[in-house]
């Protein structure tokens, strides 16, 4: 064994090294983003790119702030558009969660349920959600329900697949242990199967929410009178490049916020999980 | 008792009948839906419409022409996404300096959904093929880069150490260790990208195009020709399934060491 003092020094040196590396990464990131923004700004100020084709970062930030109070060009202020999109995404997501999570879990656990429902699920699965739009419009119109249904189709598939795979990968040892203790199949499903499926199921929810948010934009472009997708499409129709880029940024930020929140919830709910 | 029930012949036969019941259930549900409202066409209507499609093609382009139009866009965009995405992912996965400088920029663009690029792309490249390919490129490059990057980062340090012990140059290490080790992750990324590409191509064709399966759907929707819409949906589903099957097959050929979960 080495000198304890020496080991302590080495550990301290390693810590120092790690800290330095972290700081270096952050500094480099800031340099890179600043360079990018300045380059973009210069391209616009010196007129190297036409201002009909690209708005400068300052114009974009300006557009975000004016959009908070100014309803032009699409007729809604920013918060109305955000709430409209957010509401749709949430309705679609929770519908898919309520239907998809139990379905995936039951299909993964009970063979007969799997045999009965898998064929139908496999038929629906390869269809891109956007392909449903005409059918949904015919059946449900272009209102809130219709658009939530398109989000539903997008989010439903990854939720089912992940909860299905999750419960399928339950450790057989745990199941056998529960059986030895005399648990009924249903009780094993509830106490062993569902908890061990949860990490993958949550990963599915994160994917689903991200996909759903992305598809929502398309749904709003095809038929809508408010929402962020509608906003950027109107920006396109009126040739307002600053509104388009501002809208894209807001969409990206909210999408990021949604998935980060869900990850936080995951960490809270699955506290028991081994890292 | 439970185990006995599970092994009995009746139970096994029942299990094998269930998928058939499932298909029948689906068909009867469809039939019921079309009977009640009168809006949804019956399976037979769709079949007849498909027959008519052979005689009188949509927009004077045959069905294979439409399929090929969509397929060409998907493959071109996917190819561009792989050609750019795989080297970029390898670069930021392998080189810490490049990662520090380039990853923040990538992370800046990454959360913007591919479909949100539609207005900007149509403004930049018009509504022709270029903007569609560019859109599919933006959608496919993200999963390819992320998976390649993660794949490289997950390579056990010992594999790289072995290469350096045997005196491999950096290029040799990348060629002999890094790429093979991350291949299955890259393939998974390409598979995800393929799915995304199909969604984007449909959206792009629905917004503006005069050929392709998305165009078929939107044309059917415009002239209230729902059998055409459903037929196009079926074709899209079948092609999507076939493509993902081909990619799974390619994955098995390219990285046979990957253990299948199941």
Structure write-up:
The complex is a heterodimer of chains A (275) and B (262). Chain A has 10 helices and no strands. With 275 residues, chain A is an all-alpha fold. Chain B is flat, with a radius of gyration of 24 Å. Chain B has 2 domains: 2-40; 48-254, Orthogonal Bundle (MetI-like fold). Classes of the chains: A mainly alpha (275), B mainly alpha (262). Chains A and B meet through helix 1, helix 4, helix 5, helix 8 and helix 9 of A and helix 2, helix 5, helix 6, helix 9 and helix 10 of B.
Main attributes of the structure:
heterodimer, A: 275 residues, mainly alpha, MetI-like fold, 2 domains, B: 262 residues, 81% helix, 0% strand, flat
Q: What is the CATH class of the largest domain in chain A?
A: Mainly Alpha
| CATH topology-level fold name of the largest domain in chain A | MetI-like fold
What order do the SSEs of chain A take from the amino end to the carboxyl end, as H and E?
Answer: HHHHHHHHHH
Q: How far from one another are the termini of chain A?
A: 30 Å
CATH superfamily of the largest domain in chain B: MetI-like
Spans where pLDDT lies below 50 across 5 or more residues of chain B = none
What portion of the residues of chain B fall into strands of 2 or more residues?
under 5%
> What value does the average pLDDT of chain B take?
86
Radius of gyration of chain B: 24 Å
| Average pLDDT over all residues of chain A | 87
- SSE ordering of chain B: HHHHHHHHHHH
So, CATH architecture of the largest domain in chain A? Orthogonal Bundle
Shape of chain B: flat
What structural class results from the helix and strand content of chain A? mainly alpha
> Which range best describes the helical content of chain B: under 10%, 10-25%, 25-40%, 40-55%, 55-70% or over 70%?
over 70%
Domains of chain B, number:
2
Low-confidence stretches of chain A: none
Output the CATH topology of the largest domain in chain B: MetI-like fold
Anisotropy-based shape of chain A: flat
């Amino acid at each position: 064994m080495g000198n304890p003092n020496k080991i302590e020094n080495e550990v301290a040196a390693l810590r120092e090294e790690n800290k330095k590396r972290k700081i270096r990464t952050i500094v480099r990131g800031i340099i890179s983003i600043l360079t990018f923004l300045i380059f973009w700004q210069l391209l616009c100020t010196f007129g190297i790119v036409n201002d009909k084709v690209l708005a400068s970062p300052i114009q974009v930030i300006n557009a975000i702030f004016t959009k908070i109070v100014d309803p032009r060009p699409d007729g809604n202020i920013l918060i109305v558009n955000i709430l409209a999109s957010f509401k749709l995404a949430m309705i679609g997501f929770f519908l898919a969660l309520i239907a998809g999570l139990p379905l995936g879990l039951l299909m993964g656990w009970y063979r007969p349920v799997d045999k009965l429902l898998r064929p139908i699920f496999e038929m629906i699965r390869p269809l891109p959600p956007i392909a449903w739009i005409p059918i949904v419009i015919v059946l449900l119109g272009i209102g809130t329900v219709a658009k939530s249904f398109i989000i539903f189709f997008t989010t439903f598939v990854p939720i089912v697949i992940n909860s299905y795979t999750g419960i399928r990968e339950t450790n057989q040892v745990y199941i056998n242990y529960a059986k030895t203790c005399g648990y009924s199949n249903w009780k094993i499903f509830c106490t062993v199967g569902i908890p061990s499926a949860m990490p993958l199921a949550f990963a599915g929810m994160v994917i689903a929410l991200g996909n759903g948010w992305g598809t929502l934009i398309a749904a709003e472009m095809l038929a809508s009178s408010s929402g962020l997708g509608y906003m950027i499409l109107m920006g396109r129709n009126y040739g307002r490049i600053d509104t388009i880029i501002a809208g894209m940024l807001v969409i990206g930020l909210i999408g990021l916020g949604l998935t980060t929140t869900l990850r936080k919830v995951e960490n809270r709910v699955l506290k028991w999980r081994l890292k | 008792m439970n185990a006995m029930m599970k092994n009995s012949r009746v139970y096994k036969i029942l299990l094998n009948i269930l998928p058939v019941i499932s298909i029948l259930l689906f068909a009867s549900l469809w039939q019921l839906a079309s009977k009640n409202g009168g809006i949804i066409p019956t399976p037979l209507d769709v079949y007849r419409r498909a027959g008519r499609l052979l005689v009188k093609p949509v927009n004077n382009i045959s069905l294979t022409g439409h399929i090929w139009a969509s397929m060409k866009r998907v493959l071109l965009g996917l190819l561009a996404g792989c050609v750019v995405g795989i080297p970029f992912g390898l670069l930021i996965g392998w080189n810490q300096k490049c990662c520090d400088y380039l990853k923040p920029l990538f992370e800046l663009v990454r959360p913007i959904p591919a479909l949100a690029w539609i207005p900007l792309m149509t403004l930049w490249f018009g509504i022709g093929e270029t903007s569609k390919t560019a859109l599919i490129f933006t959608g496919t490059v993200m999963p390819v880069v992320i998976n390649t990057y993660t794949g490289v980062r997950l390579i056990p340090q010992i594999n790289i150490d072995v290469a350096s012990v045997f005196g491999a140059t950096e290029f040799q290490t990348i060629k002999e260790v890094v790429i093979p080790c991350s291949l299955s992750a890259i393939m998974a990324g390409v598979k995800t990208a393929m799915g995304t590409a199909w969604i984007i191509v449909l959206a792009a064709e629905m917004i503006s195009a005069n050929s392709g399966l998305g165009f078929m759907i939107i044309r059917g929707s415009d002239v209230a020709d729902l059998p055409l819409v459903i037929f196009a949906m079926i074709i899209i589903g079948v092609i999507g399934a076939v493509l993902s099957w081909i990619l799974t097959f390619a994955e098995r050929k390219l990285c046979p060491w990957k253990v299948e979960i199941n």
